[in-house]
């Protein structure tokens, strides 16, 4: 007795491959990388707090300008330069939070790795200061979108 699977020995694997490709490409991720038009020009007032120490927040201004992320405090105190950042949007959530990441460097070969999430007008995340892959300090930050003075 013949069946469709015996007639064409490769037909099962072709269908399997097609189904797998469909599943992979349709479920890759609902978080999409986008060219940043969402954060460009936005400035957030924030507080940086060193992790593991008695909270003594530092006032900061976090900005997204010209495709670069900048921390005013870290630029002033540690000479970290504005740096490129990546953005992704979680399209599965009703709030559509925006996540960003950035590695900023200074002349002392230190790296400040920023990871943050923006939901509405609120920003929160972490910043890790390291040198030669050794963590020197970790910070938490929270803040809100800076409103323009009228």
Description:
The structure is a single chain. Helices cover 18% and strands 47% of the residues. The protein is an alpha+beta fold and 150 residues long. The protein has one domain: Porin (Beta Barrel), CATH 2.40.160. It has an 8-stranded antiparallel barrel with strand order 2-3-4-5-6-7-8-9. A hairpin with a 4-residue loop joins β6 and β7 (110-119). The relative contact order is 0.17.
Structure keywords:
150 residues, 3 helices, globular, 47% strand, 8-stranded antiparallel barrel, Porin
Give a topology summary:
Blueprint (H helix, E strand, L loop, with lengths): L3 H4 L3 H16 L4 E3 L9 E8 L7 E8 L2 E4 H7 L4 E8 L7 E8 L4 E10 L2 E10 L2 E12 L5
Antiparallel strand pairs: 1-5, 2-3, 2-9, 3-4, 4-5, 5-6, 6-7, 7-8, 8-9
């Amino acid at each position: 007795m013949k069946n469709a699977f015996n007639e064409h020995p490769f037909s099962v694997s072709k269908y399997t491959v097609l189904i797998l490709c469909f599943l992979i490409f349709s479920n890759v991720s609902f978080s999409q990388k986008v060219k940043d038009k969402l954060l460009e020009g936005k400035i957030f007032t924030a507080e940086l707090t060193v992790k593991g120490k008695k909270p003594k927040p530092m006032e900061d201004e976090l900005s997204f300008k010209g495709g670069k992320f900048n921390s005013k405090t870290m630029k002033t105190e540690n000479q970290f330069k504005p740096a490129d950042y990546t953005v992704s949007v979680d399209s599965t959530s009703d709030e559509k939070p925006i996540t960003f990441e950035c590695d900023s460097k200074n002349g002392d070969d230190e790296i400040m790795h920023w990871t943050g999430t923006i939901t509405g007008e609120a920003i929160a995340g972490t910043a890790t200061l390291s040198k030669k892959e050794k963590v020197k300090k970790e910070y938490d930050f929270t803040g809100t979108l800076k409103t323009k003075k009228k």
